[in-house]
Amino acid sequence: MDEASGQRRLVTAGGHALPTRPEPPVTLDHAPTLSDARDVLRSCFGYESFRPGQEDVIGALLEGRDALAVMPTGAGKSVCYQVPAALWGAHGLTLVVSPLISLMQDQVQALKQVGIRGSYLNSTLTPGQQRVVLQRAREGWYDLMYVAPERLADPWFRAFAAQVELPLLAVDEAHCVSQWGQDFRPAYRQIRDFVESLPARPPVAALTATATRRVRDDVVELLGLRQPQLQVNGFDRPNLRLSSFEMRPRDKKKWLVAYVRAHVREAGIVYCPSRKLVEELRDLLQKEGFSAVGYHAGMGDDERAWAQAQFVNDDALVMVATNAFGMGIDKSNVRYVINCGLPLSLEEYYQEAGRAGRDGEPSDCILLWSAGDMRTGYYLLEHSPAAEGASPEDQAALDRSRRSLFGTMIGYARSETCLRGRILSYFGQRKAVDDTCSGCSVCEPRDPWEGLKAPRTTRRGGSTDAYASRPVANPWDESADLSAWDADDAWPSDGSQERKRRARRDVHGARDDGSAQGLRRDFSVPLAEGEEQELFERLRELRKALAREQGVAPYVVFHDSTLRAMVQLRPQTEEEFLEVPGVGKAKLARYGEAFLAELAQA
Q1: pTM of the full predicted structure?
Q2: pLDDT of residue 434
Q3: Residue 378 is part of a domain; what is its CATH number?
Q4: Domain CATH number, residue 550
Q5: Nearest-angstrom CA–CA distance, 122 and 145
Q6: What are residue 245's phi and psi, to 5 degrees?
Q7: Which residues make Cβ contacts (< 8 Å) with residue 374, sequence separation at least 6?
Q8: Mean pLDDT across the stretch 269-296?
Q9: Pair 413, 506 in one domain
Q10: Of 355-364, 524-533, 567-576, where does mean pLDDT reach its minimum?
Q11: Which of 37, 55, 409, 526 sits between 20 and 30 A of 368, alpha carbons compared?
Q12: 151 and 225 fall within a common domain
């Protein structure tokens, strides 16, 4: 048996290894409690305490109540349903409604790494493979399954859902149900009917990163939530520095090259309003010697998948993309997000900007705009396609809403009051917009060219020719014998505690009471140049090599913050390795030997 994943294999007479059902991460003889949830958080995810808001949501779900969680990007929304799914997995299947295939694939990979049995059902699977997944779901192979909202309307899927016990239905990106949100999808309106069609109604968890009060009311009504536990976390992300600079188009390009050159070792995303600009900026950065890739809806599926894999796996450090890229991408070490143009809403902008600094490290969110970007935005609104399935009345209301949202975005770009205050006010967290902060270009005015005079540094850059010559493997072989197909291994993937606490107090002068907050304070301290930084880079290289072997993204193995904690704690035994935040039992079994060997050489 593979100790890391709990996957057992049965060897047939012909010598072929057939997969058998993996063991659930938790088997309880009583109704799960919050104490059990904390045990799962510790053993699977490697953390001692929940982040703000998570425990309240999980507690409500375990009591059988509905919940609406509005938490900013990086706050850990997925843990709110993944932990209950692990607790209920031995007796039922949690369904997670998700709008994007990339989110499903990334989440399933990450769950497998921590010992939770995840699966998904979407169009990347052949009909035969979908039958295998559904049959295994009936047999209790999985703790949770991701599905697209459109699938809930299929009669055959409803028949499947009626045959299995569903202890929880989670709706990710729940704002998509509202026409007043930035990502309205009519298929989300079918979720309530699906829930009401089930033999036994499960608790429903609705989760989103960005929702105004109006959108929250829509989510409750349109999903049919029953007196839900409402958890609205603060929208402030103090580690993000917000900037808005008006700049001529040709100056944007010069500035972008200078900024990337000054942050040559950091990963970042550059968002553009058009496919043409994506290709221009990608080619410009490649010509300057930077490892940049592009992503937009006009590219082929294989080309987009290759570009995304290059960025996620740290083979390319700059992603230039339209808003087609990003939702569901949990890359934790993005140090900057630059918008070369105006998004169509403040929700869209904050969602894109929020992809920076998911690990809590200081990161830049920079908006570059010109008067021409306003004309472009209104043009895009006038020529946007009608929403699928929307009535004429709904479409007219949606058009009015989109114009209003874009007007608010323009107000943010041209703001002479605190940018952070504007965002918080928009989401209902703070009424005044004239408060000052220490992290935006209005409260701390600066020349946008400040700090961009660093010496020129070049890297080996990627090119579009590199893609043309690179074979893209098809992870699904339709001629394969499905009886032997391993659905869980073949998902596609482009000293003492007190002594350590005293040491951290002595070195960093920070209080550490053993709480998650205390640990984060300590490990947010930048590493010292020299030996500490060199060890960190060695651990990053080891992580990348192990990720390549596993066929997963490096951040799925460990986040940068976990590697930094390893540098500072220097664990030498398995017990000490488990004390590192972000290390659970499954990752200890999978990666502990390799990392302990590298740390032993330090």
Answers
A1: 0.74
A2: 52
A3: 3.40.50.300
A4: 1.10.150.80
A5: 10
A6: -130, 125
A7: 342, 410
A8: 96
A9: no
A10: 524-533
A11: 526
A12: yes
